[in-house]
Amino acid sequence: MTKRKGRTAGPRGYLPRVAKSEDWTTPQHIIEAVLRAFGGGIDLDPCSNPDSIVPAGRRIWLAKWRDWYLEDHQELPLDVEVGDGLLATWGGNVFCNPPYSSGTMGAFMSRAEGMVEARGGSAIFLVPSKTDIRAWQKHVRSASAVCFIAGRLTFGGAEAGATFPSALVLWTADRALPHRFALETCELGQVWRPA
Predict the structure, then answer these.
(1) Burial bucket for residue 160 (CB in 10 Å: 0-12, 13-18, 19+)
(2) Helices in the chain by DSSP H: which ranges?
């Protein structure tokens, strides 16, 4: 967990209010699997934060992260954009570990579906595997593949594993990517692909 000037968490509102911190970062082994599935690079991370280790060409922070970061730094990193990841232009290979409140997560999932339908591209999301929530019921049915990660992830900044299971969800117009996704994530857990 990041500590700056006696603080242990980032600005409020990034994760659901029940979370004890907003500094949960994607585990390194998950990022490595995503990079292998994409065959190299991540073009966009629309839900980044100052502690993110996702090597994306474009990273979008919420304005509140910018303000919090600039309290301790002169300027933002060069690869950081500030704004609303839902409103930014999406394209290429997108990796997203969105806020986990159902409505916000669903909005990001909808954006991934829309990008794939409108202009191609691909998106891999790291989300809680809560198949009963509205976001799953509405958006994951259109996914190209899903990896149900075995066990509970320990996110960066956490002292223990998550209290929920996780999954990687892929949306893509690329016919070869679901196969590569399955090959590169099958060691993480069970992979499902639509018939």
Answers:
(1) exposed
(2) 28-38, 63-70, 102-119, 134-139, 177-185
Structure tokens at 107: 């909005």
pLDDT at 119: 83
Question: Which fold is adopted by the domain 28-192?
Answer: Rossmann fold (3.40.50)
Give the pLDDT confidence of 124-136 residue by residue, as tens digits: 999 999 999 999 9
Instruction: Report residue 163 as tokens.
Output: 């209290």
Read off the amino acid at residue 186.
C
The model's pTM is 0.86
How many whole angstroms separate alpha carbon 84 and alpha carbon 45? 12
In single-letter form, the type of residue at position 14 comes to Y
Strand ranges inside 46-165, DSSP E: 56-61, 80-82, 93-96, 122-128, 145-149
Compute how many other C-beta atoms are within 10 angstroms of the C-beta atom of residue 170: 27
